[in-house]
Each structure stands twice: as C-alpha cells, then as structure tokens.
Amino acid sequence: MSLAYILQELADPDFDDIHGDDESGGFAADKALRLLVSALYANWRPADGAPFLAAARVAVYSGEKASQAVVALPDLLLAQGVAPAAAWWKPVHRAYRVARFGKPPDVALDILTRAADRPETRPARHQTYEQLAIPYWVAYDPCRLVSPQPVTVFERQGGRLVARSDAQLPRLGLGLTLWRGSFEGRDDEWLRWTDAGGNLLLTGDELAAYWRGRAVELEAR
Q1: What is the CATH number of the domain that holds 29?
Q2: How much is the pLDDT for 171?
Q3: Residue 17 lies in a domain
Q4: Which of 27, 67, 138, 183 is deepest in the core (most CB within 10 A)?
Q5: Does a structural domain hold residue 16?
Q6: What local confidence, expressed as pLDDT, does residue 220 receive?
Q7: DSSP 99
C-alpha cells in the first residue's frame, strides 16, 4: 500500500499539497491571469500611446531556431510597442520570438504554485529571464511557498534582475497590489495592476458598472 493512498484514506489535510494532480495552478491561476490580462486591455494605455501585447502562458524564445534559443514559459507576459502577426495561427507566430518582435517582453510574471517553484529551484528561472534581458520579472506567491511576501518584483539593473523593495514597475507606469474583492463571482484576494498613482486598473465589467452608476446619478439630478 502506497504512502499516498494511506494519506488519502486518513483524510490528511495536507494530502492535496503532497500529491496534487494539477501543477498548473488550476482554476485559481486561470482566473487570476484572466483578471490581470483583461484589466490591461480594458484600462491601460502606455504613456507614448504605443500598442501593447499581454498574454497568458505563451512561450518566449530568444531566437528563431528553438533548438538554439533560450526558452521560457511565463504565466503572463506584457510587451509595449509590439503587435501579434496577422497570421497568428501559423506555428511560427504562436510564440513570442524576440528576434521577430525586436525586443524581449517588458514583463514576465509567474504564479508560484508548484513544487518546482520552491526556493532551491527558482534560480534557474531567474537566470533564464536574465538571459532573455527581460526588464521586469514578477514572482507572485499566493500560497507563500517561497516567503511570507506574496509579491516580489525584480528589475533589471546592470544586466541582473534585482529585487525591488516595492511592487512598482516605474518604467511602465504600473504597479501591483493585493486586493480583496469579487471577480467573476469569486470573492478572494487577487493580484491587481495599479497605475503610477496607485489607482486600480479596472476591468471592463468594473468600468461598465461605474459608468452605469454615473448615468443613474446624472439622471437623478
């Protein structure tokens, strides 16, 4: 009889952490990423008015040939001044290839939910992002696997990614904060974008609710 079976039979409260079937973050990570991406498209414009690309779980390649490239698969990427190819269904355009876009993503964000994300294995990912010359790496640790601090922003300084003392991304005019509230019917603690002034970037639903409220106020007057 296996140890996993015994733990399951005993209804050990830590069974799911020890022998979980899903290592992607599952439903929670999927919804968290959707909130982050949707808020950017609904309520963020880069200061220079350039287009941007935000995507969840798209591979990043340093070069054209996968066999010779540095490869990363961030949970979220954000890149200013770029746009996807018109023929984006073609295999060659499905990944973020630095050689084609002309620059690395400005932000790579990872949700730390797996055993592979524990402190002893994180340096390899850190080194990969340094090799890709990504300006910001965000490590979001909702389960506190690595440290009691759930959000750490690393900023590129002199070719290295160095941890900031805050959760700001000043080159982009963005920041990150934890917010308690409801998103798509789920009340929880969520990672949210803020602007340079610390204001939340609202989702499309939140913006619609705000303007409906304003319309009601104006009508009442």
Answers
A1: 3.90.1570
A2: 96
A3: no
A4: 138
A5: no
A6: 73
A7: H
The overall average pLDDT reported for the chain is 85
Contact by Cβ (8 Å): 190, 35: yes
Cα 8-11-12 angle, rounded to 5 deg: 90
Q: What range defines the domain where residue 141 resides?
A: 23-220
User: Domain count of the chain?
Assistant: 1
Which pLDDT belongs to residue 48?
A: 85
Cross-strand bridge partners of residue 61: 71, 97
**Is the model's pLDDT at 35 over the cut of 60?**
yes
Backbone conformation region of residue 25, classed left if phi is above 0, alpha if psi is from -120 to 50, else beta: left
Each residue of 131-162: pLDDT tens digit? 999 999 999 999 888 888 999 999 999 999 99
pLDDT confidence tier of residue 79, bands split at 50, 70 and 90 = very high
Classified as helix, coil or strand, 62 is coil
Residue the block writes with tokens 């910001």: 136
Can you give the C-alpha Rg of the chain in angstroms?
A: 20
d(CA 161, CA 59): 20
**Strands (DSSP E) found in 11-59:** 52-56
Q: How far apart are CA 206 and CA 32, in angstroms?
A: 16
Lowest mean pLDDT among 42-56, 84-98, 207-221: 207-221
Sorting pLDDT into bands at 50, 70 and 90, what band is 116?
Answer: low
Dihedral sign (CA 146, 143, 108, 200): negative
Tell whether 2 is covered by a domain. Answer: no
Q: Flag whether 60 is in a domain.
A: yes
